[in-house]
Every structure is written in C-alpha cells, then in structure tokens.
Design goal:
Blueprint lengths: L12 H12 L2 H25 L5 H19 L12 H13 L12 H37 L4 E6 L2 E7 H26 L1 E2 L15 H7 L4 E2 L3 H37 L6 E2 L18 H24 L13 H24 L2 E2 L14 H10 L4 H13 L22 H13 L3 H11 L3
Parallel strand pairs: 3-4
Antiparallel strand pairs: 1-2, 5-6
Helix pairs in contact: 2-3, 2-5, 2-7, 3-4, 5-6, 5-8, 5-10, 5-13, 6-8, 6-13, 8-9, 8-10, 9-10, 11-12
The structure holds arginine.
C-alpha cells in the first residue's frame, strides 16, 4: 500500500516491508485512540484553509460531511487503521480521498504529521484529563464523607511504624482527600501547558502559506497558541512527560493509600475490613480474605509514577526538531489514563463499602499513644515541658503509666477540628478553575459551517 510520502519510485518491496513493520510498530493499534481527535483537528485545519483561500466553500462542506462520518465511526469504535496504512493521519486522508477524490488530497496543505500527531495528543490529553478530574473528585467526595462520618473514631498514629500518637479515621480519610487536592492543582498546571495549540508548526518550522493559527486555536478551544513553531514541536514529549508526572502524583496518593489499607486490613492491625465479596480468597487457605484490589491499585499507582521517568529517558538527549523516538511515548502514555481511571473508580467503590473498627485504642498495647497528651496536661498545669516529659518517661519506665484517654485536639487540622470545610472549598476552587466549559463550547461550534 502506498505511503503518504511514497513518490512511486521504490522497487525494493521485501526490504520496504521489513522496515515498515519495524517503524510502524504498534502505531496501528495505538493511533486508533487518537482517531476522534485527529478528525477534530482536521475540521479546524480545513476551515482555516478555506478562510485563507486554499479550499473553496463547496470543498469544505464536502470534507466536513465526510469527516463527520469518520468521527462517528471513531466515536463508536468502528474506526480501524488498515493493514498497509501507516498511521491514523494516513488512514483519515486515505478515506477522504477514496470518498471524495482529489478534494481529499487537499487537506494536508500547510501541515505535517508532526504537528498533526502533536495536536491529536494534546486534544486527547485534554479530554482524558477532564475525566480524570471527574473521577478524582468522586473519590475525594467519598473520602470526605467518610472523614466526616468517622470524625470521632480514634486510630493509632505511627512514626517509624511504631505506635506514636492518637489519630483518627477522620484525619486518615481526610488526609488522602486533601492529598488529591494538591494532585489536581498539579494536574491543572499541566492541563494548561497541554491546552496550547501547536497546529501550524507543521514539520516544526511553520509554512509559507499564510496560515491563520489563531483561528484554529479558537476553533479548538485552546487557551492560546504555542507561538514559536520550533518550540511547539519541542513540546512533543515534554508535554506528555509533564502530564505523566501529574498522573503519577495521583497514582502516588492512591498507592500510599492502598498500602495503608493493606496494612490496616492485616490481622495484627485489624482496623478496617471489607465485605467478603469485595476481597479475594486463596486456592489453598480457606480462611483467606485478601486485599487484591488494593494491591493492584498500589502497583498501578506506582507504575504510573514510573511513566514520567520512562518518557524522560526516551527524550533526555534528543535535540530540537522531530524524531521518530517520540512515537514510542504513545505506547505507555495513551493507556495510562485508562489505568488511572480504573483505579480511581474501584477505589471509590471500595470505600463505599469499607467497615471501620470502633474502640481500637481501648487495647492495652496503644496506651503509650497518650504519653504526649499526659505531658501536655502537666504543662497546662504549670510544669515546664522538659520536666513533664521526664516525669511521664519515668512513669513509663517504672510500669505505672496509666493515662486518661480523653483527648482535646482543637487547632485547625487536628483530630477535633480537621478543617474539612476548608479542604472542600479548596477542591471546589481548583475544579472550577479548569474551565472545561469553554473547550466544550468551542468543540460544539466546530462543526457549524
Ligand atoms: N507515528 C508518528 C509519531 O507518532 C507520526 C509522525 C510521523 N512523522 C514522521 N516524520 N515520520 O511520531
């Protein structure tokens, strides 16, 4: 099958096939993920071409109608990249040319697959980040609800994994909720980096056509342009790396949370449990209730944290300009969003069913959690801190430390006053500032001629 770049002079068919298999790699499967976005980019590009006189109105209309069909197919999972076609960009152009003849061959004026794939990736990231934000918000809400509900249920706090000070389920759930707020703050920064239009940079050096790059920026609802065409192309790999880092931040919160869950479910802790049908059994040990869901969240969360490093290694020593190396980033980057979304969904579901043990601190082994409480009580009664510390330490050594287990933590962020309302407000503000609505509005208008 002819390539977009085939000039019809090649007679080395066997060698060509060998090279094609190696260079195309997994692109035929992976580029299907980009297909709807490739079509959206093409609609914006041809509308702009018409505005500068490189297509006439009839041609534009024909192309938009045909692209709408392809978009439909891509949306409903009926878009394939045929054997012998290199990538999504070639497939779409081939389909248009088969349907419309020479008009199909006109759409590539003033662009290159280099800015096309970059654009597709950015539109894909924007779309996926929106879903990640929605699912992160749902998990956040679930955690906040649990934090409020179990505000007064105490839990041992650990340092060095040794019993340290009283904590609470309110603080524990709320901590992971607040962690997600910072992760979304980071995600917002990279979203805004991604939300800049590279189209018109073509192969990486612009075009001699008078392209109206602001027009495609507005049509696609980008916040602004990547102005400098060389920088626009340099964004390939850099944007994915930054976005991967932010996805990894959410992955990190999930992985740490999952580790806590596995630990707290362990019989020696026994702080939490889940209904039997949400745990997994063993093929040999009949008593087993294993936390496989959280083990996999932990592993996937850690794997997500590795992704930005992988991209860093692929791109670290590349000079400016396009390089085929960049194609490989898609292999782990595109599926990462689905992995993260699955983790967020299952974590939310599991937390809807979590069971909490009450009265954990009644056990003798946790009495030393109250040592600082005891010291503080003496301080409030007038003893200097270091002296009170010594008194309590000596009582512990002598085996006659018998603390009063009432606690009164009142400052902001502490057991009695975790600041959940403030955390809610912070999250609300972050989510609102993503401004997904202006993207939706632009994309709704994109098809209106
Ligand atoms: N599949 C390629 C990629 O992902 C598309 C761009 C190809 N450009 C090129 N000059 N070979 O990078």
């Amino acid at each position: 099958m002819a390539k977009l770049w085939d000039k019809g002079t090649n007679s080395h068919t066997e060698a060509t096939q060998l090279i094609e298999n190696f260079t195309v790699g997994k692109d035929r499967e992976l580029d299907v993920w980009l297909a709807p976005f490739d079509v959206l980019g093409s609609v914006a590009h041809i509308r702009m071409l018409e505005s500068i006189g490189l297509l006439d109105t009839t041609e534009l209309t024909q192309l938009v109608v045909a692209l709408a069909d392809i978009y439909q197919a891509a949306q409903s999972g009926n878009f394939i990249i045929e054997a012998g076609i290199e990538d999504v960009h070639s497939q779409v152009e081939m389909m248009l040319t088969q349907k419309l003849g020479d008009v199909g061959k006109k759409i590539h004026s003033g662009r290159s697959r280099n800015d096309q794939v970059l654009l597709d990736l950015k539109l894909y990231m924007r779309h996926e980040i929106k879903e990640v934000v929605q699912l992160t918000t749902a998990l956040f809400e679930q955690l906040m609800q649990l934090s409020d509900q179990h505000k007064n249920t105490l839990l041992p706090g650990y340092t060095h994994l040794q019993v340290a000070m009283p904590s609470s389920f309110g603080l524990w759930f709320g901590a992971y909720a607040e962690s997600l707020t910072d992760d979304l703050l980071l995600l917002q920064a990279v979203y805004r980096i991604a939300n800049q239009n590279p189209l018109g940079s073509a192969a990486g050096y612009g075009s001699s056509f008078p392209l109206d790059r602001q027009m495609t920026t507005d049509l696609l609802g980008f916040e602004r342009l990547n102005y400098n065409v060389v920088y626009a192309q340099m964004g390939r790999g850099k944007v994915e790396k930054n976005v991967a880092f932010a996805l990894g931040a959410i992955g990190g919160s999930l992985a740490k949370m999952a580790m806590d869950v596995c630990l707290y479910m362990n019989q020696n802790f026994g702080f939490i449990t889940f209904p039997d049908h949400l745990t997994t059994g063993s093929s040999i040990m009949p008593h087993k209730k294993n936390p496989d869901v959280f083990e996999l969240i932990r592993a996937k969360g850690n794997k997500l944290q590795a992704l930005s490093n992988e991209i860093l290694m692929i791109t670290a020593n590349l000079p400016s300009g396009y390089h085929r190396d960049l194609q490989l980033i898609k292999e782990n980057f595109l599926p990462a969003f689905a992995d993260l979304k699955a983790c967020l969904q299952i974590a939310t579901y599991m937390f809807q069913h979590i069971q909490i043990k009450e009265d954990i601190l009644k056990s003798e082994k946790y009495k030393y959690l109250f040592s600082v409480e005891e010291v503080n009580k003496q301080v409030l009664a007038g003893t200097p801190f270091r002296e009170a510390y010594k008194n309590v330490g000596l009582a512990i050594d002598a085996g006659n430390f018998d603390p009063d287990q009432s606690i009164a933590h009142t400052h902001i962020g502490s057991i009695g006053n975790p600041g959940n309302q403030q955390v809610q407000q912070k999250m609300q503000h972050i989510v609102q500032s993503f401004d997904f609505a202006s993207v939706t509005q632009a994309l709704d208008r994109l098809w209106e001629l």
